[in-house]
C-alpha cells in the first residue's frame, strides 16, 4: 500500500471516522430512495445535473474508501461495523 493510503487509513481509525462514513452511506441511500424520485423530474428539466452527480460521486468515494480500508486491514464487513460501534 502507498504511504499516503496508510496515512489516510490511520487517520480514519485514530479519529474514529469509520462510523461517520457508514452513517453518510446510509443517509445517501435513504436520500436516493426517498427524495431523489420526487425531484428527478424537476432536475431533468434543468440543463445541469451536477448536484445529483456530486451526491452519487460522494457515495462512490466513500464506498471505495471503505473497500480500501477493509482490504488493507484484511477485515470483513463485520469487523468494520464492530469498529464503528
Overall description:
The chain is mainly alpha-helical and 85 residues long. 84% of the residues lie in helices and 0% in strands. The protein has helices spanning 3-14, 18-34, 36-45, 50-73, 77-84. Helix 2 packs antiparallel against helix 4 (50-73) and helix 2 (18-34) packs across helix 5 (77-84). The radius of gyration is 16 Å and the shape is elongated.
Give the tags.
single chain; 85 residues
Q: What overall geometry do the principal axes of the alpha carbons give?
A: elongated
Compute the number of helices: 5
| Amount of beta strand | under 5%
Major beta sheet summary: none
- The string of secondary-structure elements, in order, is HHHHH
**Rounded mean pLDDT score:** 78
Low-confidence runs of at least 5 consecutive residues: none
What percentage of residues falls in helices of 4 or more residues? over 70%
Total domain units: 1
Number of strands: 0
End-to-end separation: 26 Å
Radius of gyration: 16 Å
> Structural class, please?
mainly alpha
Amino acid at each position: 500500500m502507498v504511504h499516503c493510503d496508510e496515512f489516510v487509513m490511520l487517520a480514519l481509525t485514530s479519529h474514529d471516522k469509520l462510523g461517520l462514513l457508514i452513517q453518510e452511506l446510509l443517509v445517501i441511500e435513504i436520500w436516493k430512495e426517498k427524495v431523489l424520485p420526487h425531484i428527478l423530474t424537476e432536475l431533468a428539466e434543468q440543463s445541469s445535473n451536477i448536484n445529483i452527480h456530486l451526491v452519487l460521486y460522494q457515495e462512490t468515494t466513500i464506498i471505495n474508501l471503505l473497500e480500501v480500508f477493509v482490504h488493507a486491514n484484511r477485515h470483513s464487513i463485520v469487523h468494520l461495523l464492530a469498529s464503528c460501534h
